[in-house]
């Protein structure tokens, strides 16, 4: 396993992070989840990403139990706040009230005294940005949070936050967590250039495009039983990629992976790690062998010719429009 700095901070993270978005607490049983976590640890993964909203807070609980007994100083545990975790009007968003209550809930579920990175899961248009950033800064001062970041924010939103932090003397953001893959490159136009200039890095989710880039989804064929496309908790994200022409192009990547001695998944993860602004690629798994396969992408460096071949195959099925974002216009 290789490691990279998170932004301009001194924190090192593993190139491959383990994430439990729709697996722990919902898609797989706890024994399988624990096996996946320990497979990641065995392979040198030290960075684990979750969120309070995943599986209705259960994902944090499962991860906390799975990591129990592991030396805390050897781990980087990331979680997030924003989405509803209750039915009340203050059980959501980035208000000071919700942030303070949510971090305490996350720490309790994760069985830890602090999280290494606390992330604003989306931008909250209904809360003053100064309020959110002051709450984050207070958590850093309290020692409950070591670093702060965001997830799926636009370049303009990140720039505004950095300006306020500089003016008010708050700890600066160190990272953004966007969707990024060969097929989804919307951060390249605006977010990455801003982050490179300002010292933030990307912790990317869905580098394998929800499994599409493994090649297991075939054009004109139904999705394999038990795959993410058949799971209602994750099918909404993958549905837009199940286009026959896109799937046909993905199949044409197989010879490129084979020439390099890589699996399709390893090629996809290595592709995002070639971007110098990416600190870590988040992978999920339902079986330990998936973890062991994906982590082999760490240390793989794709050359210019390989990148050219990939672009030639994918052509116009790649999404590059920075206006395309999963961020909501307002709180749910």
TrEMBL record:
InterPro entries: K_chnl_volt-dep_bsu_KCNAB-rel, NAD(P)_OxRdtase_dom_sf, NADP_OxRdtase_dom. CDD domains: Aldo_ket_red_shaker-like. Keywords: NADP, Oxidoreductase. GO terms for cellular component: cytosol. Coiled coil: none annotated. Residues 15-313 form the NADP-dependent oxidoreductase domain. GO terms for molecular function: oxidoreductase activity. Pfam families: Aldo_ket_red. The keyword Oxidoreductase applies. The keyword NADP applies. Transmembrane segments: none annotated. Belongs to the shaker potassium channel beta subunit family. This is Aldo/keto reductase. It comes from Sphaerimonospora thailandensis.
């Amino acid at each position: 396993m290789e490691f990279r700095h998170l932004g301009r901070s001194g924190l090192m993270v593993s190139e491959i992070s383990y994430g439990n978005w729709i697996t722990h607490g919902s898609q797989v049983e706890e024994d399988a989840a624990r096996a996946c976590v320990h497979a990641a640890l065995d392979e040198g993964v030290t960075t684990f990403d979750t969120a309070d909203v995943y599986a209705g807070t259960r994902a944090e609980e499962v991860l906390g139990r799975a990591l129990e007994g592991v030396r805390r100083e050897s781990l980087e545990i990331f979680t997030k706040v924003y989405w509803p975790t209750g039915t009340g009007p203050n059980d959501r968003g980035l208000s000071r009230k919700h942030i303070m209550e949510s971090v305490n809930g996350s720490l309790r579920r994760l069985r830890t005294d602090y999280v290494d990175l606390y992330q604003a899961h989306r931008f909250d248009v209904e809360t003053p940005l100064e309020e959110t950033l002051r709450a984050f800064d207070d958590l850093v001062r309290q020692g409950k949070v070591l670093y702060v970041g965001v997830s799926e924010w636009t370049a303009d939103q990140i720039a505004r936050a950095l300006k306020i932090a500089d003016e008010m003397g708050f700890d600066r953001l160190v990272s953004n967590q966007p969707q990024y893959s060969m097929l989804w490159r919307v951060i390249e136009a605006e977010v990455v250039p801003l982050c490179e200039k300002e010292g933030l890095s990307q912790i990317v989710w869905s580098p394998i495009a929800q499994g599409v880039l493994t090649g297991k989804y075939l054009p004109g064929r139904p999705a394999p039983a038990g795959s993410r496309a058949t799971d209602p908790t994750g099918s909404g994200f993958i549905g837009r990629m199940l286009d026959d022409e896109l799937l046909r192009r993905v199949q044409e990547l197989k010879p490129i992976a084979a020439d390099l001695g890589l699996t399709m998944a390893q090629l996809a993860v290595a592709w995002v790690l070639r971007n110098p602004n990416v600190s870590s690629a988040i992978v999920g798994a339902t079986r330990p062998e998936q973890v062991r396969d994906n982590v082999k992408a760490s240390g793989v460096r794709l050359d210019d010719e390989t990148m050219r071949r990939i672009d030639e195959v994918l052509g116009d099925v790649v999404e590059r429009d920075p206006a395309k974002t999963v961020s909501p216009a307002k709180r749910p």
